[in-house]
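[09:14] KT: can someone run the structure on this one? pasting the chain below
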Amino acid sequence: MAKILKIYPDNPQENLVNEVIKTLKNGGLIIYPSDTIYALGCNIFDIKAMEKLAQIKKVKLEKSKFSIICNDLSHLSDFTRPIDTSVFRFLKSHLPGPFTFILDANKSLPLAYKNHKTIGIRVPDHPIPQLIVEKLGHPIASTSIKDDDEIIEYSTDPELIAEKYGHLVDIVIDSGYGDNIASTIVDLTSGEPEIIRQGKGII
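[09:31] RB: done, structure tokens below
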């Protein structure tokens, strides 16, 4: 069963955060809080961890659409094609925030994203995922724990999340109750914002 770590945004304990980082580096999966709902995450460069993530979501890895969680926009060029100044300014004005932005991918994507033409980028407005990415040294792959049905209590209460997913992941980070509204997905591949899914973020 997963280890439950109580890590709170206002005063995250360094030793607990380091335990999360060690788990990610060793190919483990985590459930972590964000500015929207709780999410599943793993090391973006660990193909076996990525395969586990795909199995949990019941999709083939090559067809998965896992977001890339960054702590700022400095990693954009690692994963996306060069973007216009106007698009960058748009991103900067909305991030960090409850958005997933779809951008054109470059050819340097991690192995698990091979042949993906687009990629979803998230910079959550929440200190825990930002701290994890900062300490890990690179972004993580992520997908929300919600099913296709309505978000219900098991996806907002970390104790119930641990009961449901504890046998599938290594760590559940308990930061208190999560939100029950997913991120807004915005396609920027045309240069103009197109809302694919309206969620918490308002354009």
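[09:33] KT: thanks! The CA atoms of residues 28 and 161 lie 17 Å apart.
[09:34] RB: yep, looked fine to me
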